[in-house]
Amino acid sequence: MSEQDPLWQAFKQTSYQASGHGKRNMQVLKDAFADIDGSLASDGYGTGKVIEDFQEKIAKFLGKETAVFFPSGTMAQQIALRIWCDEKGLKKVAYHPLCHLELHEEDGLKELHHIEPVLLADETRVIELEDVVGLEEEIACLLLELPQREIGGQLPDYETIVSISSYCREKGIKLHLDGARLFEIIPYYQKSAVEICELFDSVYVSFYKGIGGIAGAILAGDKEFTEQSKVWKRRHGGDLISLYPYIVSSDYYFDKRVSKMEQYYEEAKQLAALFNQCHSVKTMPVVPVSNMFHVHFDVGKEELEPILIEIYKETGVGLTSYLRETSESACSYEVSIGDQYEQVPKVRLETVFELLNEKLSTR
Amino acid sequence: MSEQDPLWQAFKQTSYQASGHGKRNMQVLKDAFADIDGSLASDGYGTGKVIEDFQEKIAKFLGKETAVFFPSGTMAQQIALRIWCDEKGLKKVAYHPLCHLELHEEDGLKELHHIEPVLLADETRVIELEDVVGLEEEIACLLLELPQREIGGQLPDYETIVSISSYCREKGIKLHLDGARLFEIIPYYQKSAVEICELFDSVYVSFYKGIGGIAGAILAGDKEFTEQSKVWKRRHGGDLISLYPYIVSSDYYFDKRVSKMEQYYEEAKQLAALFNQCHSVKTMPVVPVSNMFHVHFDVGKEELEPILIEIYKETGVGLTSYLRETSESACSYEVSIGDQYEQVPKVRLETVFELLNEKLSTR
């Protein structure tokens, strides 16, 4: 995804893009602050109207007693697990092997908190009740990521979460929701955020994925839990004198997009269907359950890149700026439907897939 | 300092304030972004032009090989000490008893990094060479805070730092600079930032104290050190997808104010002299060595508050929004000279001190 990359360059020059909310440039901040009165006071080390109002608003949306704004999910989730481990006096948690904490945090959970994870399920599927029941070790907390991003955003049935939640409560295991993409799965479950979150003891949500803000996260739970999380937030160096640049923008884009998740979900299903009609392409999941899915090509990255570049140039529509090599003869990328998809003229999109299918069938 | 507080209310209503850069409201961000082109790309997890350019600029200013932007000094400093402790295989550091890590970070250094501090000097003075030479325990790192904020911003002689630095190098002790207010002490030492920083192995500077930005910090040192600090930054949850709201504003206010530190310093000496002419008032230090000092009143907070409120109302000039009770018959507050001092009409300021002296002499 470097500036020298020809696919990235070609993508950048397209008039329409089928994924995302658009460029992550500084206009994102300028738009969010355009109508903000400059005399509004900053938050100050976690206090003040701007942070307290937003925390209350999201706590209410999630059906939790209280919520705390964090600069990042990495910080919020390590802290959630630490609190539950300390409460039980047991530094062991369980999560999926492709959990964010396992892949993307340089082992912060282990290095800073000395918490040992037990890995449940595997790289082909989500965690099921049997995995939890079958646990041979005692744990303080189970983390469920909904949807499981690294496998295309797959979800367990709602009933599965209900039964996992009951089981955990019975066994004294705390259940934590990695809801980085929680807003995005509400349309699939046809449940409110409250109905999903009430199955969990603590919930993290992000404001720069489906919501498209600049950065920032909320950690929600009961007051005793969130009060402890504030102490750990200070220890981590996350209790900044001013978090308002992230809070104001999170609030702005939350209001703008939380009601569009149903649309993104429908568009994701539409786009996935177009891919699945093409030769040598399949999506994971085949039918998306949120605004996201992964596209897998049975074509090597080297071979596919010039094909995509040609299509971008011919149609003015970009599908992706990068390809991830999964083997010598296969590659993939991730789709997150956002505001840009609706702007792609349907006729152009049809041409894209006609060309793609043709080129992949005749190579 | 609550909104119900009469002193805070009276201060808020004054036309001029003798301390600070002004309100920490959202205009601070809006001003910094007013001339920013919205098409400028965000940084992305520590990479990209906006973060790399600023890191390079500050590294150069400090005379260090490399620099890393952090959301907070709390995060940056714990990480610096952790790296030096790991390098030596000894989890012990030394710092002043009123160090930020000891007072304001909920023991993050101990709770997250299991590093044990040895306290040097005491609440009346800064760390001297003898304190370091007299250390009975082996340590991995010594932290010096210049100026020592909690005692009014006192400083050791430059020669003292030189000799501490030589001693530490000889003994294999890393020397870390808590330079939260480094820019502010350059005029006193009459040394460049480079000349001060070359005495230290690692340096932290802040962008929301004298510089008056929104939040953010830089940690600087050699490349091996800063590369490790990036790994820890991710572990702490500080490697945000976008830090540009803090970077752009830090850069903007750095350019605007770094050259004004000499003026703030002169004004601090001027203002301190006015206080020291008053009955029952003295400043710490008597002659400031930066833009900051503490004002100590031999008057109880309850008695002083109505006096200050009266003066604010009569002159339209505010001195402080709060008083910290130090005993039943004494209180204090902190002055940090910023852009607001120069705007206070000299005639009004003279009246303030005439009134203050009169009221304190005749009570």
UniProtKB/TrEMBL annotation, chains A, B:
Keyword Transmembrane helix (UniProt): no
Protein known as: Low specificity L-threonine aldolase
GO BP, one annotated term: glycine biosynthetic process
Keyword Ribonucleoprotein found: no
Ranges of residues in domain Aromatic amino acid beta-eliminating lyase/threonine aldolase: 43-296
Reported cofactor(s): pyridoxal 5'-phosphate
Family to which this protein belongs: Belongs to the threonine aldolase family.
Gene3D superfamilies: Aspartate Aminotransferase, domain 1, Type I PLP-dependent aspartate aminotransferase-like (Major domain)
Lineage, broadest ranks: Bacteria, Bacillati, Bacillota, Bacilli, Bacillales
Cellular component terms (Gene Ontology): cytosol
InterPro entries according to UniProt: ArAA_b-elim_lyase/Thr_aldolase (IPR001597), PyrdxlP-dep_Trfase (IPR015424), PyrdxlP-dep_Trfase_major (IPR015421), PyrdxlP-dep_Trfase_small (IPR015422)
Gene Ontology MF: a single term: L-allo-threonine aldolase activity
Keywords: Pyridoxal phosphate
